[in-house]
Write a structure and sequence with these properties.
It is a single chain. By secondary structure, the protein is α/β, with parallel strands linked by helices. The chain has one domain: Transcription Regulator spoIIAA, CATH 3.30.750. It is about 40% helix and about 25% strand. Strands 1-2-3-4-5 form a five-stranded mixed beta sheet, sandwiched between helices. The radius of gyration is 13 Å and the shape is globular.
């Protein structure tokens, strides 16, 4: 499992590591996502700060559908989510997942991981 809990400042963040998955890695990506979903479902509602990293990964319709389903199932556990690696077409796909899940989320580009962490731990986070 690539994903893990990290600490930034004094806040606990679930780092969801979906980096560098190719189209041929669908099963591995699904296994990683399933593990993250299981972790999220163990947490109290509206308690999780999540940093999702999709840099270097390829999106496809099946991948987006899988993320939509997972986001819908876990939405009530997420207080705030930052997604790093949202550039180009991924922004449209990000917007679709957020729309379906209604999670409080913000997109960040490839080089904005620190900004994403800062946003997560802001006073209201």
């Amino acid at each position: 499992m690539k994903s893990r809990w990290i600490t930034y400042g004094d806040k606990r963040i679930l780092y969801c590591d979906y980096t560098h998955f190719a189209l041929s890695d669908f099963d591995e990506l699904k296994a990683e996502l399933d593990t993250v979903v299981a972790l999220l479902l163990q947490e109290p509602e509206k308690s999780v700060l999540a940093l999702t990293d999709i840099r270097g990964s390829i999106a496809s319709r099946p991948v987006i559908a899988m993320f939509k389903r997972a986001a819908t199932v876990t939405a009530k556990h997420v207080r705030k989510q930052a997604v790093v690696g949202v550039t180009g077409l991924k922004k449209v796909l990000f917007d679709a997942v957020v729309y379906v899940s209604r999670q409080p989320a913000k997109a960040f580009g490839d080089l904005e991981e620190e900004e994403a962490k800062d946003w997560l731990v802001e006073k209201d986070g």
